Amino acid sequence: MSSVSMASHTTTKFSSNGGSNGYKDAPVVYDPEIIHQGVNLSDPEELEAHIQVLDVRERLRARRRRAIRLFSVAFCIVMVALMAGLGLVTRRGESNVTAAAGSTQSPISTSLPPSSSTGSLPLPPADLASKCSATALQSQQGFLVCEGACEVADCCTIPEEFALSCSKGNENACQQYLQYCSILQTTPAVSPISDEEIRSSIDEACIGLDPSSLIDSDCVALCRKGFCCFDDDTVGCEPNCQTYFNCAAAFQSQQQQQQQATSTTTNPISNPINQEDSVLKQQIDAICGTAIETVSPPGENSCESICAPAYCCFDHLCVPTSDVDCQDYSACYVLYADVNDVKEDITTANLGDEVHEACAGLLDIDEAISNEACNAICSPGACCFEEKMSCSNVDCAMYAECIVLHPNFIPVSKAEVTDACRNHNDANLQSEEPTLCEQLCSLHVMQCCFHLGGDCDDAVLLGDNSVYCDRYQACAVLGTDGSSLIQSHKDELEAACTGGTSTRSQCIQLCSSATCCYSSSVEESCAHVDASVTCSDYEACDVLYG
């Protein structure tokens, strides 16, 4: 039965009067379907029924049209995405070809630190020493600030043979970063830091900060891990970008600073007065004087500028570089001390008494850190409690009582190493615990002093390697060829390479002896370079090579 005949049974009342009056109210309808089917337009009931059928069909046609439009839009979106993806792959391929040809075009932007192929590494900020001091790292925010300031130089710890290394050509900048950033390897974060705490620290450091004050600020240091959130070319951004919401200005400031760094030649930081030490001391005394009133205003020849290299000699827990003799800069003390506390003559003879007066009676690290006098007087002697720092210009005997600021310092003497390793073979080797000899002779010590023949990656931090390695001569009992690692060294390597970003530099350093295990070139394989390396011992290094 046709839809029209079925609908003819429907009773629809157009007018209460019926008859011909109903025709006046009937709608005037023209539709090809009506003409085609020969619908009787004079019958209002049949006409109304047919209109209802047409309404249903019209709704179905409208649905089909909407579906077609949605499908068309979806198809266009998919095609655009495919074309964009194809273009991205093409650009990557072109970049790889260009890099292989030795081109110096713009580097591929990632969240990794700058490499040697991306230009000069910017010199560290002037206050890096204080940002990464033992005092600063006592707080969560201080740890984040130091970590952020040092992250740009992570590429310095990557061996030169790797593409991501920036050590070649940036020796001076890397040396300065490593001198102060190495503390992160031995100082764990106070406690796990949540995204909320990080964002709170960022907001506190960045909101309301004048754009001209952003360079080398705590805001930039805290935001550095989230810069990939603002870089459109970055592929894969690990941090939670909501945490770094207020870092846009810091990112722009850093971009401008990097552009300026690549457009100019980076010169090593040198002493502003290039003369003999005695002449230097006389000029500093003349410019800075012995009282705070004689300090000249800021400028090229001001006390502030001439004392800049000796920043770590005073009220900051950092270590001066080996070319700085703090005694020559004694007159700079007026810049860091209260006018009522300035001593006209601070000599080596009474330095021990000054240290005793400031630090004696302090019971723990917390009390010592909060004591400004002890911190200030002990700053130049911090190197006495850092095993990897050169301390040639400091009389450590005068700073003995400063150990209260360094509770984790456990000096190891040559005699102690010798005694421990003399009894190594007689120790209970069936025990799962490493012997004392194995604990003192760490994998780093063995690689530096034996496997690599004293060619340590961090030689700049160790001062004279021959003196350093002489202390560990007795470690030779553990084997000097590096052909296989003992279990304690495997455990040390595993801990370094599974500890996350806090131990990444240590992992890279320890794995540098096994780079031949991951070479794709036959000429650079271990069979040709160093057949003594057992690659299976370095499986923990897989995390560095994907």
Automatic annotation (TrEMBL):
**Ranges annotated as biased composition (Low complexity):** 103-120
Q: Which organism is it from?
A: Nitzschia inconspicua
Residues covered by region (Disordered): 1-22, 99-120
Q: Give TM segment ranges.
A: 67-89
Enumerate the UniProt keywords alphabetically: Membrane, Transmembrane, Transmembrane helix
Transmembrane helix listed as a keyword: yes
The identity of this protein, by name, is Uncharacterized protein
Lineage per the UniProt record: Eukaryota, Sar, Stramenopiles, Ochrophyta, Bacillariophyta
Q: Where is the composition biased (Polar residues)?
A: 1-18
